Amino acid sequence: MTMTLITTPPTTTTPAGATPQTATPQPAASVPHLRLERPLEGRDADILTPAAIAFLTELHDRFARRRHDRLAARERRRFEIGTGDDPHFRADTAHIRDDPSWRVAGAGPGLEDRRVEITGPTDPKMTINALNSGARVWLADQEDATSPTWRNVIGGQLSLFDAIRGQLSFTNAEGKRYEVTAERTPTIVMRPRGWHLPEKHVTFIDRSGRELPASGSLVDYGLYVFHNAHALIAAGAGPYFYLAKIESAEEARLWDDVFTFTEERLGLAHGTIRATVLIETLPAAFEMEEILFALRDHCAGLNAGRWDYIFSIIKTYRGRGARFVLPDRSEVTMTVPFMRAYTELLVHTCHKRGAYAIGGMSAFIPNRRKPEVTTAAFEKVAADKRREAGDGFDGTWVAHPDLIPVARAEFDAVLGDEPNQLGRLREDVSVDPADLLDLRIGLPVTTAGVRGNVSVAIRYLEAWLRGPGRRRDRRPDGGCRDRRDLALADLAVDPPGPRDRRGRRHHPHVRRGNRGGRARRGWPLRRRPLRRRRRDLPRGGAAAGVPRLPDAACVREVPRLTAGCRRAGATTASALRRARRAAGFRGWGHDGPGPSPHSVRGGMPEGRGHDGLGSSPRSVRRRVAVRAVVGTVLAVRRRGPRVVSLVMRGLGILMLTPPFLPWLSSVVWSRRNAAETVGSKP
Length: 682
Ligand SMILES: CC(=O)SCCNC(=O)CCNC(=O)[C@H](O)C(C)(C)COP(=O)(O)OP(=O)(O)OC[C@H]1O[C@@H](n2cnc3c(N)ncnc32)[C@H](O)[C@@H]1OP(=O)(O)O
Ligand SMILES: O=CC(=O)O
Prior knowledge:
There is one protein chain. The protein is an alpha/beta fold. Among the domains are: about 270-275 and about 290-445, Malate synthase, domain 3 (TIM Barrel, Alpha-Beta Barrel), CATH 3.20.20; about 445-615, no CATH class; about 620-680. The protein has 23 helices and 20 strands. The strands form 6 sheets. It has a 4-stranded antiparallel sheet. It has a 4-stranded parallel sheet with strand order 7-4-3-15. The relative contact order is 0.09.
């Protein structure tokens, strides 16, 4: 069932509770409008008010085209880098970098002291726990920590709406009641999805009548700012955002224009909205100053999004050969030279322009039931935060409330009573492009590392498809437990043997077992190791306890997440099939149990996934069969005489073995009997 709402921009500046806009069932093709692909349920109408939808329509009408241009520019840039044109500091923006006079807006009210920020999803329980956590800032995450099912998207908005108005409470299945009790709650900084992600439950019909999925960024951002900007300002804070996955100054400029338009439309003073930009892609690391400049009236700071940054390096350089292959994930630490160069440059750039430098996420998570795990996690996190505070960062992220005192102690030791260390200009830092691109670590890829990656990818996919989009996990080395979310799964699925431009694979030497193992050339991930990973999937219990099927929106991520596995051979289909089966899915296309409303097969509309490949069990089987046949034909063509001679030899040996002839005759005999039996049926 779909719902159509027509809006004619400009429409309204009235936030929640405003008089509903006119709704007519058949909009003219030339009037831009949005269509909701899901019926409103429960309290959805509190968020998806006609006025809010009118605002979203205006955002799309003004900015959707520029968003597509920017995404096309990303592809072009990626192609250029893939064909040898390494990133560099831009010549056309040298005047921005050389001009010492400009500064960014800096901290808005409530953002002056950001020494510890807790990240987390926006479901009611986590929202309340984050607000009670004692952190200075809460990153309310509609991005990496959240699988964008329609329920998560709208449910997250509802939690924020209620929390900001002091009316959020929650009772869990065991009857435990959650309420916000902290005297001082963290300032909320909301993270909408990045420019690349669509929101498939909302369709934008543009002036020419063309239908496109709405932008995930504009939906998340637009609903939050529309409903909450005035309430946040009244509470002494403001509408603040983390901007994810930005790749260029032009993308930052696009956000800046969105902010300026919003301020005009909602009657806010220019510069009320504040953004902290995650520098988590390789191209963005070369444009930090330009990004700050583009957003200077709205910018509070930059954050070192380390995990996505590593993934971005892998992704950007995956066609460029073995020189760019990183070793096992656990070896790519914050102290390897290219990560040092990136964080040092970030602190230097921020403080030069009056922007806060916020540190990243250590992946170690305590376990309240296992003190030894907690102790190890505390030690690792403390060391990480000590390094960041010493390097000049003004604050940092933690993923769990128990880590707040650990991180705070390290920052208190350096900041004391000062709210930041903007005065430390780090003029000693000198980073050139070669430092950012020197990916040599000098450690091997090991089969243990590769298996660990496959394990993370499969576990994460299961959690993603089921809905939470994040999980805690045991580390492959048996030590602390860390969190898995989109950024980490992204890292895990890109295998170290991608194809180059001409379609050849670049296999690094992969060591058997761990670092000390014998080096072997070739991609170690065949069917056998993957079969062993079957144990990675939760059996029954956890998954079966959540019968909800995932939204189709998350399927957009699946091909990306599994692209690496897919390149490694016929592994993705089986991995996904197992993940889906373990989670009790029959299709990916909708929330709620039972077959998909889109398709009798229970898959995506017309039984096809977003990658254009079928996703129903039958089409997956067909695809695997076709791959097997094509693979065999190619193998025979490539190594023809050898394969034929091997097959003949095998058959010869088989025929000489004593059990063969009796077995053959029994098969022929039983076939004939069966045929007779069938033939004799009435
Ligand atoms: C690279 C990036 O993008 S990082 C940002 C994205 N990732 C994240 O934000 C991950 C955030 N962290 C989490 O989601 C969780 O900490 C997990 C999933 C890793 C672990 O959660 P759990 O298994 O529930 O941990 P645990 O049982 O120790 O939690 C203890 C309590 O702390 C709460 N808690 C844990 N983490 C958080 C958090 N980040 N925010 C608020 N509360 C939290 C739990 O809800 C739980 O509360 P309860 O006792 O009332 O049930
Ligand atoms: O989004 C944050 C990261 O570390 O990646």
